[in-house]
Amino acid sequence: MSNNLLKVYNKSTDIDNALPPVSELLDRVKYTTTRYRDLDGEEKEFDYRELADADGYPIPMPVDRENYGTVDSSAYYWVTGHCDWLNVQTAMDRHLYRRVGQPIRLLDFGCASCRFLRHPAVFGGEKYDIWGCDFAVENVNWNKRHFPPSIKTFLNNANPHLPFPDNYFDVITAFSVFTHIDQFEDAWLLELRRITQPGGLLYLTTQNDAMWNCYLESPYLLEHLKRANKVSANKIHVDEDLFRSPMPESRMVFRMSDREVYNCNVWHSNEYLRANWGRYFKIHDICDRGHNNWQSPVLLSPK
Ligand SMILES: C[S@@+](CC[C@H](N)C(=O)[O-])C[C@H]1O[C@@H](n2cnc3c(N)ncnc32)[C@H](O)[C@@H]1O
Question: Is 181 touching ligand 1 by the criterion CB < 6 Å?
């Protein structure tokens, strides 16, 4: 079968040239204190020097981490995963029904090279049963090469199915994944709902109303989205003016390339999330910009 039919995503990789652990990259940063936004929108600060010493796993090259940052900003790449981990722990404390005496079964859907998962693996230890999946085989290969087998990652297909029984996971996270899924959004939501236990928690990040005007603050993000203007499928022109007014539609999909999969940039208004995601889930919270200021986690439990 061709990759087309399998509908996975093929990307570049530099799997043999992983960077050293984050503790060996700290000489490239000025400070080891960092600020992040918690789930209540408060700015918090912490020093990550000692935390970094605990993580002995290599850091992926930018091409193997979805081009997040540069080699020189690799410590910051690591820190973003830690900030997500701090916020996921808060969300679990607030909304997860914990099964007594059982490890927390955690799946990171669209895990890439474990930017997030390495943190529960290092800091959560045996309290977690850790799984990740992605439809880019290069990401899965990277994880298998550079992480121990206790971090279980596998390749999934772009069609909405995952190989688990009903109610299997306690927690499912997806960082910047539903920002790239177009037609199969509902089907993926329903599949994630199927494999989450009643009382479980889903932590899915979105670009919502709170992010819309922020594109004006970020020439980098705006330039990136302007690439949509070159793709004929888009009817809405991307320019500064678009972001000066409220989001014109409650869900917006910008086609970014002619690839079959992983080809779009998706926005969800809070109104859309409540009306549509709310059909399948109880929505606990939408935490504006709680994913490293870039996106807003939506905290959900199966209905
Ligand atoms: C923007 S990246 C974010 C990566 C990672 N979640 C993080 O926060 O570092 C989106 C990731 O989702 C994956 N992805 C997108 N759609 C997917 C799907 N339907 N199934 C599995 N993985 C998907 C991509 O291959 C990519 O690794």
Answer: yes
Tokens for 247, please give them. 């989001």
- Best CA proximity match to 57, nearest among 32, 33, 74: 74
Q: What would the CATH number be for the domain defined by 3-7+81-209+267-302?
A: 3.40.50.150
Ligand 1 centroid to residue 25 C-alpha, Å: 25
Atom of ligand 1 at shortest distance to CA of 9? Answer: 25
Provide φ and ψ at 253, rounded to 5°.
-125, 115
> Cα of 219 to ligand 1 centre, how many Å?
23
pLDDT at 152: 98
* d(C-alpha 21, C-alpha 122), whole Å: 13
| C-alpha closest to that of 202 among 299, 92, 126, 72 | 299
Q: Is-above-0.90 flag for pTM?
A: yes
Query: Are the CB atoms for 109 and 133 separated by under 8 Å?
Result: yes
Mutate which of 180, 202, 257, 266 for ligand 1 pocket (most atoms within 8 A of beta carbon) = 180
Question: Residue 288 half-sphere exposure, CB side, CA atoms within 13 Å?
Answer: 11
pLDDT at 6: 66
Tokens in use for 56? 């002995």
Residue type, 56: G
Distance 112 CA to ligand 1 centre (A): 6
Using an 8 Å Cβ cutoff, are 159 and 7 in contact? yes
pLDDT tens readout for residues 259-287: 989 999 999 999 999 999 999 999 999 99
Please indicate whether residue 120, judged by its CB atom, sits closer than 6 Å to ligand 1. Answer: no
* Residue 127 tokens, joined: 């309290």
For ligand 1, the distance from its centroid to the CA atom of residue 133, given in whole angstroms, is 9
